[in-house]
Amino acid sequence: MMPIKEDILRDLNYGDMLCTPGWDVEFAVGTTYSLDLRSLLIVPYSLGMFGDLSGQVKQSSLFILESIRRSTEHFVVFCQRGGIHMPKETQAYYPLLEDAIVEVQDRKNHLSSFHPKLWVIRERNSEDGCQRLKVVIMSKNLVIDNNLDVVVNITGKINTSNSHNTKKHKPLHDFLERLSTYTTGQKRKQILQLAEDLYHVKAFEVDESRFEPEGYEFLPFFYGEQMNSNVRYPEDFQGTSVMTISPFIQTSELNKINKRVRKNGERVLVTRSDYVTQEVFDLYKEGGSIWCMNDQMVNNNIAKIDLHAKSYMVVNPLKESGIFLYLGSANATGAAFCKNSEILLRLKLKRGQHVFDKFKSEFLQLNDEDESLVYEQLLETVDTASDNEYSELEKWIRKLLTANFKASVANGKVDSMYDVNVKVKFKKGDYKITISPLLAPSLEMRLEEDMTFRNMPTHKLSEFYLLKADDGIKPVNEVIKIPTKGIPKDRNDEIFRSIVDTKEKFYNYISFMLCDDPEMFAMELSLATEQLDKTSTDGRQRKMPLRIYEQMLKLAASHPERLTDLDDVMRIVKDKSFTKEFLGLFETVRPIIPKLKQLL
Fold first, then answer.
1. 118 and which of 31, 363, 491, 573 could share a cystine (Cβ 3.0–4.6 Å)?
2. What is the DSSP string of 443-480?
């Protein structure tokens, strides 16, 4: 288990988590409460198998397009409905990510949250072809922020000839099965296959030596249902000493967790100072301590950092002997354990001296004088403690999102333009709610039960819509998905054409597709651009096809199967005049590809 903090304590690099050197990702399922579309691009970056790249390469629209093209069939991310953040800038390629995002909601209780942070990934070794599962459980959402989180990574080899540990892995298996009901088609089959793979893993290995081998338990909660019958809340969280790490807390749950802590035990709480009420303070006054991130971390002009980790260290729970560490997504609140969907991993620590104290010192980063540069001990309560309640507007929006939104696309009155009709039945409130297609914010209109957005070009059609509301106190801006029928089959092609819309962009994209080293490609492209800028336009246009032709010949000799990807690109842009010269080059190479495949 490791605490993580972007840039300052430790980078949480989704690329490092999702992609292991020497292993190819076959399929990945992720879950998060909130999601930032820009952050989501980390997943295609990683699954595109490009390696460690600079920010310059990753910002390239050509790189993003190729990442999405290579990866969207290989992953799916589940998030809370209404949990997609409004992007600061909309990008033409965002609709290409639609099929990889599934919104989840408890329609019976709109105040319940889908809150687990999990990745289950099937990998294949690039040398010997063996498969394994990687499970990553953490507290971090798929967003860009500066909060401190925790993450753990475990891996297990898949042996399809035998079934193993079906009881230990059943909770996670059942959790994946439940997620699959929110999808259809090939994505659902892939998720169910991942669930089945769990039964073919003998044991997972934890990435730290301090934990007992096979001393792990998966604890998924699905809208209040505890899916692991062997480890129960709150009984198995109640120890003779307990350290609770949770930014959001409730006195009732802290009382439950600390029920068995006696005078010779220790109770420790790490939380946010805003949530420490007098009741909470009194609970830890004798034989306990409360720690919060200090003012220099939380309030500064460079990078404000606050606690977002969720973890519980429990010594000798009622029915077991030993020290156990829980970590994952669940806060110490009634909603987390009784209403929400959550995931925790329980690990058993190896026996040793002062294990509890060592973990406490490590997490709080205490020196020999029990002082920390990151945390401070809370010696009194704040003037006004916050609560965990939603505002009235947030409650109203959550209720609204349980309604059955649906949309349909029809031909507009203008050629090559479309009208999008959105329907929803809802109980109107006192708030002004507006909605617009994500890529056409200028078409914003007041939310009604029947609305039509007119004259939209194909490449701006999307299932993403922007919902805005304001109560004069705190505005709500959320992106939601609305199932939309009738989107033209060539919509994705039109998005591609809208981005790769010049001869220079086309050649750069093809060159990027064919290269083995994107970082080197970026450097060469930069140098080539400088040289070509000194030449005439005709000279630039002559040199670029020769570069592409050379790349195709090299690839045809080493990896001819990769050249077949060009067929899709040519199908998309075949009617563009600037592709004719390349098409001639491609046709000279195409006939030799099948023969080369047979030789390799």
1. 31
2. G-EE--SEEEEEEEEGGG--SEEEEEEE-SSS-EEEEE
